[in-house]
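FORM 7B: Structural annotation worksheet

SECTION A. Query
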Amino acid sequence: MRIINIIFACLLYCSIGNAKTYTVVTPKKSSARELYAVEYLHRKLTEIGYTDISKGATRTVEINTYKLNGKPDIIVYLKQSADTAGLKKEGYTITSKGNKVYITGNDGTGVIYGCCALVEHLHRYGNADFSKACVDAPEMVMRGACIGMQKTEYLPGHNVYEYPYTPQTFPWFYDKAAWIKYLDMLVDDRMNSLYIWNGHPFSSLVRLKDYPFAVEVDDSTFKKNEEMYTFLTKEAGRRGISVIQMFYNIILSKPFADHYGLKTQDRHRGITPLISDYTRKSIAAFIEKYPNVGLLVCLGEAMDTYEDDVQWFTKTIIPGVKDGLKALGRTDEPPIILRAHDTDSKMVLDAALPLYRNIYTMQKYNGESLTTYQPQGPWAEEHRYLASLGAPHIENVHILANLEPWRWSAPDFIQKSVMAMHDIHHANSLHLYPQASYWDWPYTADKLPDGKRLLQIDRDKMWFSAWGRYAWNCHRDHQDEVAYWDQILGDNYGISYADASNILEAYEQSGEIAPKTLRRFGITEGNRQTLLLGMFMSQLVNPYKYTVYPEFYASCGPTGEKLIEYVEKEWKHQPHVGELPLDIVTQIEAHGDKAVAAIDAVADKVTKNKEEFDRLCNDMHCYREFAYAFGYKVKAAQHVLNYRWGKDISELDAAVPLMEKSLEYYRKLVDLTKDTYLYANSMQTAQRRIPIGGDGGKYKTWVEMLPRYEIELANLKKNIAILKLKAKGDFHQETKQIKVLTNAKVVLGDSIKTVKLAKGVRLFDDLDSVVTDVAPELKGMNAIVFNSKHQKEEGTRLDFTSAKDVSVLVGYFRDDQIKYAAAPKLEIDATANDYGQAEPQLFSAIKINGMPQINVHKYDLKAGHNTLLLPKGYLLVLGFTSDNVVARNVGLEGSDDAIDWLFY
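SECTION B. Predicted structure
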């Protein structure tokens, strides 16, 4: 199958006319990048029907006379500028005189990009006329894409992000032809950086004298990894592409961890001299062995406190880089990219910049989704601060959890987003994730009849091209851009450019659906939520129960209201502000209708790439059915929320047919996807929680979700019937007895003090606060008494032994003050559900005088000896049990009138 990147050049021949001839002239002493530029031109011009009359021989400007097989139609002269003073890096100038085209790069990469511009000009205009000089240079300093050395599920014996580089796990990594194809695509899109993401790459790429056992692959694989990494960096360098290796902190190689009896990662472990020494030497060896590779550092997620981040960056990472540079005899400072996710960037940079000046910064654009080209709020303020430091600030278009798995390439949305990066965030660099299936690289989620897999660089070529185009220059004329994309799409599908405008319209219309839906109704912008699988009614009417991610709504879209806020204001006759949920429903339904109408209008005109067009068409229909299924559910939720305020059962009656209508559209969505998609989301682990947990790789398709949505409707009907019987006085319900949890037998250290949980007991030996109320199921549990000062400074460590599997009941205070330990958050801690602890089991389950409300999470641990490290700050350990804990809102803070019980 030929997609845009293959057919793009082949179709140029049609637009130019009959076969023409060319030759390329270069300086006698050409750089590696100039020589690549020659290769690039030979390949591209040959593909579009030109013949090289010098037959590929290298011609230099010193050769004045030579025999050619006829006079060439185009003679292309390539060179770098002799005087680069005042010239912007990677820029170029193109002029022409007669049949001669002169490409002068501001540097070697500029020569390559000048050749890219020549090829694009030939495609668009069918000539090589540059009598009016073309002078251009990129707006963004760094423009790159990333590849995850990750999988959809954990490897046996490993945790999240732990994926050694092996042929069994990543066969594509060892495919040199595939790498060449990918790198050439980056050149086409004028991208100059490639990021490789992995939790701990060092154990696959370097061997340490002091820790030889830390290598995580066999000798044969290690040699292959050395060869491939050297090959990749060399080929990338020839193309003007920097390779940047990302890693998380603190993650250890499994052999190293096993050798010392450690966990590979534990967010609450803290820094030890051994771990610091191992990591510092790993970084030094990596810098020495691969001198042309940069580092992207993620301090958060696998580390506990901001203070730890500072210490680790300044006393382990930077010294490791300096050690490697010293071994090479280098005095320069290659860039270190600091990822601002889950860290205090100012605190880190204040300490690091006096030690190392060349630090770049990176932060997520819309979090882990794409929601808006109007970012604002505290996240925008952080971007502006990072940009103010002077070094390039990089926008990370990350994960795209709300765009999986359907095709999404809306050029106008992308162009406006890049403009927002400049104008609102003050950024000047781009780091781009794949459009979908990040965890399943290089494949897409498409399910083909023959069982084969589509490649992302083929299917999503337009995604990469659009971001690269606008990272180079986002200030392009809109009408000219419409014409540009019409031509690209028309050539790809073999239709007129006028007809191709319908395909572009379908992309633009469908491109608004997922962003608008998530930013107005989502629980989070992170990959904890797979939007296009839908949401439960309970999540729409009581989102806070599912832990709405802080500042998401304030930062990832225009000012507006959640549905729950909108209904409350309606009942209180208060004015509304900004973007409103019911308006968004109307808009996404209209977008779906327009997308389908546009794509269907040209369905019988497509003459090329028909199979891919049919898949694109199916995706447009998927977006429409999703919009209506979601929209009717929101309308039903509005009636349910009306019932919350007015207790009028007729409001619930009104919700039923709307939910039934939603299910009609969802069943259509099931039909459209069951034979065309393997999954909706590529992260198929317990980290995914919305609309439902992804434990064991389950609930990743619409087929699996449909029965769950049918059940919630059945439950609503059942509860409406009960409410009506109660209103008549005809319903008699036995009071459900709350089962008291049984204390599990565990052996704790001698210094651990416990107390039977009851009113009046103290759970901190240095605070006067006492328990004033407790959930019935927790009464009598053996709670541990802590010292709050020690918890705040050192964290909480539990060492215990049990004969059976047990659940540790941990109470987290519902307060964001730094003195309280932070409850598990998958958005910032990828291990936050390793023990099933992500969601609270008992809401508002204990009251302690003078302290915030408390939610209880359970940590499930196996029989035997266990060590559980919990975050720094005040928290409670309320006991150990082997009983099943039934999740519920105890409501000791008083009734919050939540009505999600209607769907259970």
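SECTION C. Observations
Confidence is low (pLDDT under 50) at residues 1-17, 61-67. The two ends are 48 Å apart (CA to CA).

SECTION D. Sign-off
Analyst initials: ____
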